[in-house]
Structures are given as C-alpha cells and as structure tokens.
Amino acid sequence: MSKTIPQPDEVSKPFWDAVDQKKLTLQYCSACDRLQYPVRPTCYDCGKSDTLTWREVAGKGHVLETMVVHDTRVVRRKVDVPFNVALISLDEAPYINFLSNLPGTPAHQGPQGAAVELFFEELEGSGGRFIHEWRVVGQ
Amino acid sequence: MTTQAGWQRDRDGLGVWEHRGKVAIAGYGYSPLDRRWDGVSMDRTLGAFQVIAMQKAIADAGMTPDEIDGLMVCPEPAGDTWAQADRGLNRPFFAAPYDTEDGLSYTSAKWLIDEMARQGTPLTNLKYIDDKAPYIGPEMGKAAQAVGDGLAKNVLMTYNMGNVEGRYHLEEGIYSAGGRQWSAPWGWMTSAMMQHAFVFLQYCTKYGGSRDDLAPFVVNQRRNGLLTPWSFYTQHEPYQIAAEDYLDARPVAWPVTILDSDRPVQHAAAFLFTSAERARDAKQKPVYVMSHAQINKPNRSTMATLQDHEDVTDLLVKILYDGAGVTANDLDVFNPYDGFSVFTQTYLEAFKWHGVGRGEAFDFYKGDIRVEGPHPFNSSGGNLGNGRTRTAMYTDCIEQLRGIAGARQVQVKAETAACGMVTPTGNGHIFLSTVPS
Ligand SMILES: [Zn+2]
C-alpha cells in the first residue's frame, strides 16, 4: 500500500502528532458535547473555536460499507488496485466516520457491519510517520 | 456590479415563492457538442460555443441583444486548463482573444461581453452583471430571483462544460494537503463518485437490491440520449446498450462503473429569464418559474450517509414544492440529476414522483419508464444519455413544456417540470410551468 503522506497544517498538526505517537485524538466541543473528525478550525455545530479541545478515543468501530477502487487518478495508489475503501463508524460516536483500506481483507470481501479495531500503519518513505487504519477484528 | 445577498431558498418555512409565476424563461439556446476541444478549431472553443448558445437564446426569445440588461455567468472551469502548466505541458496560448485560459477552459463575463461584441451581437445595455454566479443548479434559481427582484428585466444566464485534450484530473505527488489529508492517503479521489458509492451501498443494505437494479434506468438514459440529435452518443456511439452491457461494465469505484459515470464533453447553454408579462409577448410559449430551492450542507464527518442524503433531499423538495404551492401529484416532467447514476433514486424518492417513496426506486425502474410510456422518467436522458452537459435536463424541461421535444416528447401531460443538479448535499432545483398559477 503506497499511501500518500498527510501534510499537517496549523489546525491538524496536533492530530497527526498524536497519530505518530499511536494515539487517535479527535476534536471535542465542550459547548456541544460533540466529537469532530476530520479536524476543522471551528465546531461543525456551534461554529466556535475556543470550545474545541482534544480527546483520545478508543479504537473500536464497525464497517458501514466497503467500495473497491479499480481505477484511480491518485497516481501513487495505481499500483494497489483493486483495493478496498471502507467507511468505518466509530462506536463511541457513530456520527464520526473514517476511511480505511481494511488491510488484511481481500478486495470485494469487506464484511458489511463487521467490528473493526484501530491500528497505526507506518507510511512508506515518510521517515517514521504513521496513519490511523482499521482492520476487521479477528483477522 | 449588483450583488444579491440572501437570494437562496435553502430553509424550511419560506412558503410560496414571492415571485411565483411572475418570472419566465423566454428563450434558451445551446451550442454544438464535442467530446473535446481539439486545440485547433477556433470556432469550437468553449468561448465560441458559449457565444453561440447566447445568440441562440436571444433569438429564440425573439429579442435583440440590446434588450438584454442582465448577464449571469458562472466562471468556474469545469474541466482541465488548456496550458496544464502544473503538469509540465505548458501548452502555448493563441492570438487574442485566446491569449489566456479565459475562453478556453472557462468563460468570464468580461470575455463573453467582448466576444459578443466581436461577433456582431453586442450587449450594449447591461445594467446588472453577475460575474461570479454558482454552477447551474443554483444559478437557475439565482437568475429567476434576479428578475423577480427587479435587478434586471431580461437576464441572460450562461453555463458551459469545457473539455480539452489532455490527461484528466490526475492527482500526483507523495503528500496530501488541505482537505485531502483526510482522504487521499486511503486512495480517495476528488470526485463525487466515491461518496455516492458509499451512500448507494447503504441504500442497498437498507432497502435491498444491488447495482444490477440500476440497469433499466441506465439503459433508458442512453435510449433518451439517442433520441436527442446532438447528444454525444447520437453523434459518436449511435447504438443502444443492453442491460448486459451495464452489468458487465468496467468497475471504477465498485459498485460505480464506467457506465454509471458521465462522459466529459465540451458544450454550452444559455437561458433568457424575463418577467411573465414580457414573456407573454415573446416569440415562444412562455415557461414560467414557479419556485426554486437550494441545498448546501457540508459533511459532518468524513462522508455523508444515506440518512444525511435522505434528510436534505426531503428538505429540498419541501422548499421547492411549498414555493410553487404544489404537491408531488402536480409534477409532470421530471429530470433529476444522474451524474452519477447511483444517486438519482435519492431525488426520485424525495420528489415522490409518480408516487415513488423511499426504497421503491428499483421497482419503479423495472416498469415502463420510456418517454412514450406512462412514467417517462428523466426524459432528457441526462448526462448519461447526452454527455456531461449538466444542461440537457434543463433544455429538455423547456422543450417538453413547449411541446417541441421531438422524439423525446412525453405522451403524458406536460404542463409542469422540475429539474436540478448536482448532488443531494449540494444542489439547486427549479420548478417550471406552462401556466403562471
Ligand atoms: Zn460546538
């Protein structure tokens, strides 16, 4: 898997720094009592920024659905086709979802509704950078 | 420049549109359609095509260019640039007016005004110019609102889709920045395709069925496109596809295949909005604007869900129907967006056209949806049948209401029409009628 390397910006840097330390931390709005991902400068619900803090979440989720990429314009991923792209909902906040390639699960065999667990995958050629990934429990 | 603040109809509770039946489309025009610009034919550039469409819209209404006092232009490039300097092609420009991207990969209002003058149809009386209009979905509503609000009497509205020779939207590089840091590492393409693949899979899980159930719809879209003399398929691939072709189509982002996706083309259209009174004296049978509505709902998380799409399209249709003072039973001609095929049912079910409710689209597609049948769904053929014009669904609504759709003319009553684009979470729609009340 030749994943591209996320380029942190001012707002997302704490998120990616935590990932590099193998922690999944999401934005949390204390006014709305809501988690938020992807990282944004302001809260999706109330639009405030000074109410946002970081909160580590448990890496448990479920597969909503899995599509399979057969042809891609993302040049770096062309060597990987066909590959799964699953949508993962986070158990402790199901309105939060993540993309995953479901490493270990063959293409077209993404199990709808299956439990998944978080792990951190080192990115090729990144000098020690990681990315949050998900795999089907028991695989 | 005059600007309109708060013109959108994007929330519940707005009731009947204040200009319902007081604004009309008096003329429309479209250019030839090419697969791509060849880099040589200066009479077939995007700008040249847009001017052709504008001239035809004015002539169609029986007006003269000096009667046009409003111009609305969406300057967003729809395809790749000509130069493609970022990809090292550095293709040279041409003599003026083609010495920049303007006129080649997009058209600005200024470029079009200048070119209309060079082509002998100068717009000498413009008082209202919107040179940063949105894409055609909301742009249609904005143009109708501008006339209703009195910003201009006769607003000429343009929209085009460019496609030049070259590699198409490649995403290169090792690093992913901005919004793409959250998606590209997992192989996400910048396209509506993958978002809608997920929602479509959720639809199949919730209601049953699979992409196979889209076959009758996709096949019928091609059929309607082949009934359109200028469509991409009529010109270049003039044969009908069968359900088996659809089932065997090359997967791109499974379940989305090449036949679920529209062909990029080079094409332009223009629409002339005027008051209902003026339209009654115009050359053509007026098509009255009864309502318009827009949705712009950013995703809460990485991806929107089926529930999100159902909620926002329910809201869209409520705003649109309330604005026109109608119910689903009042809608005759219906051209929901089909680029990609996998989300058209979201609109069909939200509009409850011909009684189709949530989860019922696949059964509906199995019935007689041909233009000559009782349920002439998407009579334009949409993008899938014509190429990615994004305007064929609008021109078809006008042609159906005027009774000039030719081989595509529906046999059921055609007194009202609705259409729009693009995706459930970001779109604009319009409701049209042959009578103003
Ligand atoms: Zn908040």
Describe the model:
The complex is a heterodimer of chains A (about 140) and B (about 425). Chain A folds into 2 domains: about 5-55, no CATH class; about 60-140. Chain A is built from 1 helix and 9 strands. Chain A has one helix at about 15-20, and strands at about 5, 25-30, 35, 50-55, 60-70, 85-90, 95-100, 115-120, 130-135. In chain A, strand 6 and strand 7 (about 95-100) form a beta hairpin. Chain B has helices at about 45-60, 110-120, 135-150, 190-205, 215-225, 230-235, 245, 275-280, 305-325, 345-350, 360-365, 380-385, 390-400; strands spanning about 25-30, 70-75, 130, 155-160, 175, 250-255, 255, 265-275, 285-295, 335, 415-425, 425-435. In chain B, the strands form 2 sheets. Chain B has a 9-stranded mixed beta sheet with strand order 3-2-4-8-1-9-12-11-10. In chain B, strands 6-7 form a two-stranded antiparallel sheet. The interface of A and B includes residues 64 and 68 of A. The structure holds zinc ion.
Question: Topology of this structure?
Answer:
The complex is a heterodimer of chains A (139) and B (437).
Chain A (H helix, E strand, L loop, with lengths): L4 E2 L6 H8 L4 E5 L4 E3 L15 E5 L3 E10 L13 E8 L2 E8 L14 E8 L7 E7 L3
Antiparallel strand pairs in A: 2-3, 2-4, 5-6, 5-8, 6-7, 8-9
Chain B lengths: L22 E8 L15 H15 L9 E4 L35 H10 L9 E3 L5 H13 L6 E7 L13 E2 L15 H16 L7 H12 L5 H5 L6 H5 L3 E4 L1 E2 L9 E9 H5 L6 E10 L9 H19 L8 E3 L8 H8 L9 H6 L15 H5 L5 H11 L13 E8 L2 E8 L4
Parallel strand pairs in B: 2-3, 2-4, 10-11
Antiparallel strand pairs in B: 1-8, 1-9, 4-8, 6-7, 9-12, 11-12
Helix pairs in contact in B: 1-2, 9-10
Bound molecules: zinc ion.
